[in-house]
Amino acid sequence: MMSPRMGLVVPKRTIRKAVERNRIKRVLREEFRKRRLALPAFDIVIHVMARVDNARLRADVDVLFTRLATSAGDET
Questions:
Q1: If you placed Cys at 4, which of 27, 39, 49, 75 could pair as Cys (CB 3.0 to 4.6 Å)?
Q2: Is the dihedral angle over the CA atoms 26, 62, 36, 5 positive or is it negative?
Q3: pTM over 0.85
């Protein structure tokens, strides 16, 4: 059985400091690992377009993954 995969795009042009880019990627990977079993077998690409703090990032990713999990459940 296939599992979901996630790709991240955090451009240097948008987020200048490597520390911030790494923080964003770390938070996204952590949230993906927590919800991996609930997600359908899709390839997910997240492109970060602006600076964001941890709480807002977690909330946005929660909404995104919840919507993805429920919409995939509706199709089957």
A1: 39
A2: negative
A3: yes
